[in-house]
Amino acid sequence: MKKGVSTAVKKNGTIYYRSSITYNGKHISLGSFSEEEAAFFCYQEAACLLKSQRKITDYSSDSPLSFDKWVSLVNFRDNHVYFKNPIYVQKSYFYYYFDLSEIFIFDIDDLFFYSSHKLQKRGGHLFVNDYGMQLNIAGRYGIRNFSVLGKDYYFKNGDDHDYRYSNIIIVNRYHGVTRREQKGILSYRAKIHINGDYIIGDYKEEIQAAIAYNKAADLLKRSGFNKNYALNFIDCLSGREYAEIYTQTEISDKIKKLCRK
């Protein structure tokens, strides 16, 4: 058997060949092949990559190594830590490679999460599988499901692949709440959709506007409006603090009258 190659047997009795390499005391699986020669070629490619100064951008689609494995090996060679996912570590951040043309940037604090969760993309949304569920990663950065890029949040440097915390600016954190600035005065407007948008009110504090939205939604639901209003979760307040603001916050008379019909 050639170096770096071992045999294995499928359930149906078919023999196949596994390619692997040991580098700096780490045994790394490289892939499975139907032919011994192909497995050996993969081993040779990995050995050459680990001994050379080739970069991630030197990857070619005709390589026997997968792109993910190529990135993992280059990172291991340069940074002496191995990840199964296609990650390349810098000092305070790291790159996560979808492919050569699509690269995401994350803070080093997120390294453990993304080294153990495979990043996937569908319909423009990034997600990972976590305990059998598809988890949209936007929530890690305060971006809600309803958030609109450019309105509710934006990327400070204009790069929508740069998910470092300092680069993500959240403008509107809550359902139905929009930040407004007029003549240098900041306020928060709460609106709710009934048959068109209704203004609930303008408030000095973002949290008060979010609670006003909840109050209007509660009132509409109790009055028989069959709308699936998603309520705002205010995790920075105790139950007592929330109830006090809820009670004291006024909402639009138009909404009150509508609910009395």
Task: Please give a handful of descriptors for the protein shown.
three-stranded antiparallel sheet; 6 helices; alpha+beta; 261 residues
Question: Can you tell me about this structure?
Answer:
It contains 6 helices and 14 strands. Among the domains are: 83-171, no CATH class; 177-260, no CATH class. The chain has helices spanning 36-51, 67-79, 111-116, 206-222, 239-248, 253-260, and strands spanning 5-9, 15-23, 26-33, 87-89, 93-99, 102-107, 120-122, 125-130, 133-136, 153-155, 168-170, 177-182, 185-193, 197-203. The protein is elongated. A hairpin with a 3-residue loop joins β4 (87-89) and β5. The protein is 27% helix and 30% strand.
- Tell me how many strands there are: 14
Radius of gyration computed on alpha carbons? 27 Å
Global morphology: elongated
Strand order of the largest sheet: 1-2-3
Structural class: alpha+beta
SSE blueprint:
Layout (H helix, E strand, L loop, with lengths): L4 E5 L5 E9 L2 E8 L2 H16 L15 H13 L7 E3 L3 E7 L2 E6 L3 H6 L3 E3 L2 E6 L2 E4 L16 E3 L12 E3 L6 E6 L2 E9 L3 E7 L2 H17 L16 H10 L4 H8 L1
Antiparallel strand pairs: 1-2, 2-3, 4-5, 5-6, 7-8, 8-9, 10-11, 12-13, 13-14
Helix pairs in contact: 1-2
